[in-house]
Specification:
Layout (H helix, E strand, L loop, with lengths): L2 H23 L4 H27 L5 E8 L2 E6 L2 H27 L5 H19 L4 H19 L5 H33 L16 H14 L11 H4 L5 H10 L1 H17 L1 H4 L5 H20 L4 H21 L3 H32 L15 H15 L6 H14 L3 H26 L33 H19 L2 H9 L6
Antiparallel strand pairs: 1-2
């Protein structure tokens, strides 16, 4: 064991928590507070990259903290899936912080110190969750993530924000306590361990009905994956500021959900057992239904953030489908989609926030012609939309490619059609936004079913041609994540290698 790497692993988890002390201490001085945040972001990226290099070199990296009962401990170990999640979260924390500086100041948000403190705690929880060596450790950090993001959801302090926060906290805690915790305790009783293991931890002669029931408990219990009918917390949380929405959809919360689903499927059940369980087929079709229904609901939303929220519910279903298909291509596609969706969706939310701060618009029906005022922002929105749809030259192409291969390998032709229909629906609810933004007077040629078309014969007045983009820090963040969408198309190899290595050692 390389002690320095073990120390880096622990620092990657602890440092975001410790940084909150500095943020609170200098909270009255915005420049100093944000310098502490950015410095911590850069240090975390350095640590995670070093851990990635160590893992790539074949190092075994683990850390032990505390044993509560024999065989039940708080401990950590690095494997490819957790490494992939940590790389995404650490990098996007820096980008989101840069964006938040421009947004929070431009929007004159209150309680900014509390925002950065809770954000840091959430990222610390993500690091602990990503590097968890067992289900018990993962569950602890999973709940810390829920509690630390609640103040962010209710940041505005309005009655609407408080109501959204109650829905957010209520659903996530309900699913965790009623389903997830019960699944973990039952797994301990049946398997005798909670340690993650390639190929799964259940004995080969495990009762398939019992294991199938446990799988249902896990899928419903991991509420952050937003599988219907436990998805309402996600649209409800859209009352939060846009940087928080970015955190929820791309950096931490929903990614923690689908990461946990994938982790449980691969390292608790194993894809061999998963393929023969009686409930797997029901759950994979439920995920498919979530994909289609959420896309249909998204088309009817005139509020941009609400449309993007339901889009996220749909896209999360892709990861769950890939995990439950119980094939190598499915696991690779799901793993890659965590990253591809992160860059695409965070860009879309960044653009939504930029439009709100700059033009004070939140409804899609009010956004005709804004591409003439905000060409960089709406150009980025178009590119990110292509990534969510899954077409070249964007990274989303590759994750959807492997998911399609997985449906063919497993002969799940209904799910293959589901993925195709979903991509068509993605086109229907995303591309018209960019189209109207750049070509406002051509709306008569668009579909009457588009929620943005209030009337085909309406007189469209062109906005001022004066270019007025978002504050510079926010614009830089938008450009960085947009370049990420493009880079992941031309250079997906490191991501593919991590995703392929997830199944290494599977029995």
């Amino acid at each position: 064991m390389n002690l320095s790497l073990e120390l880096m692993l622990q620092l990657a988890i602890i440092m975001p928590f410790l940084s909150t002390i500095g943020m609170v201490t200098v909270g009255r001085f915005p420049n100093a507070r944000e310098s502490v945040t950015i410095t911590t972001c850069l240090l975390l990226i350095y640590l995670v990259v070093q851990l990635y290099l160590g893992l790539s070199a074949g190092e075994s990296i683990a850390a032990f903290w505390w044993e509560l009962l024999p065989g039940l401990s708080i401990s950590f170990a690095i494997e490819p899936l957790g490494m992939l999640f940590a790389l995404i979260a650490s990098f996007l924390w820096l980008v989101t912080t840069c964006y938040a500086i421009g947004y929070m100041r431009g929007h004159n948000e209150k309680n900014q110190t509390r925002f950065y403190v809770c954000f840091a705690i959430a990222i610390g929880a993500v690091m602990g969750l990503a590097f968890s060596a067992n289900l018990f450790t993962l569950f602890i950090f999973y709940e810390v993530l829920t509690l630390s993001t609640y103040p962010l959801v209710t940041h505005a302090g309005s009655e609407k924000a408080k109501k959204g926060g109650r829905t957010y906290l209520g659903i996530l805690l309900f699913t965790s306590i009623v389903f997830f915790l019960l699944a973990i305790v039952s797994t301990w009783f049946v398997a005798g361990t909670l340690d993650f293991k390639p190929g799964g931890i259940f004995a080969k002669d495990v009762d398939k009905i019992v294991a199938g029931i446990l799988l249902v408990l896990f899928i419903f219990g991991i509420g952050k994956a937003a599988i219907m009918p436990f998805h309402r917390w996600l649209p409800a949380a859209m009352v939060a500021p846009t940087p928080v929405s970015s955190l929820l959809h791309a950096v931490a919360v929903v990614k923690a959900g689908v990461f946990t689903v994938l982790k449980v499927c691969v390292f608790i059940f194993g894809i061999d057992l998963l393929a023969v369980l009686p409930t797997t087929q029901f759950l994979v079709y439920l995920a498919g239904a979530s994909v289609l229904l959420a896309s249909i609901v998204a088309m009817r939303q005139d509020n941009l953030k609400a449309r993007l929220a339901y889009s996220t519910v749909s896209q999360l279903g892709y990861v769950t489908i890939g995990a439950l298909l119980a094939s190598s291509a499915g696991v690779i596609g799901s793993s890659m989609h965590i990253a591809m969706h992160a860059f695409g969706k965070i860009t879309l939310f960044f653009c939504a926030g930029a439009i709100l701060v700059t033009l004070h618009k939140s409804k899609i029906s009010e956004m005709r012609g804004i591409g003439l005022q905000m060409p960089l922002t709406m150009g980025a929105f178009f590119i990110a939309s292509l990534s969510i749809i899954g077409v070249p030259p964007t990274g989303g192409t590759w994750s959807k490619w492997y998911l399609m291969i997985a449906t063919l390998e497993t002969e799940q032709f209904v799910l293959m059609v589901t993925l195709v229909l979903s991509s068509l629906l993605n086109i229907a609810y995303l591309l018209p936004i960019s189209f109207h933004a750049f070509f406002p007077n051509l709306s008569r040629f668009t579909s009457a079913n588009d929620a943005t078309c209030q009337t085909q014969n309406a007189q469209v007045s062109l906005p001022s041609f004066a270019i007025k983009e978002a504050p510079l820090p926010s614009l830089i963040a938008i450009i960085v994540t947009t370049l990420g969408c493009l880079t992941l198309f031309v250079y997906p190899q490191p991501l593919f290698e991590l995703a392929s290595a997830v199944l290494t050692g599977r029995e």
